[in-house]
Design goal:
By secondary structure, the protein is mainly alpha-helical. It contains four helices and no strands.
């Protein structure tokens, strides 16, 4: 599913949809999220992927900093009566 999604969103060269998370797929994912495209998934890639997943359907950032994320969690805990 990830390889097909990346192909639909501009991966070049197109990925073979084989279900394997190899260096080519990781590199295409890194290019999609704006991380250094070195084919090795590390801390920078994980952080950028986290924030990419926190965009709405229009690509607008719901969360853009760790402080924003902490504030969202704090509000959720408060709303749930846990804070």
């Amino acid at each position: 599913a990830l390889q097909a999604f990346l192909n639909q969103n501009g991966a070049e060269p197109k990925l073979s949809v084989d279900g394997k998370l190899g260096p080519k797929t990781i590199k295409a994912l890194q290019e999609y999220i704006g991380a250094e495209a070195d084919g090795s998934f590390g801390e920078e890639s994980a952080s950028k992927l986290t924030f990419k997943l926190m965009e709405n359907e229009e690509g607008e950032k719901i969360v853009s900093t760790e402080s924003d994320l902490e504030n969202i969690f704090a509000q959720q805990f408060k709303d749930a009566g846990l804070a």
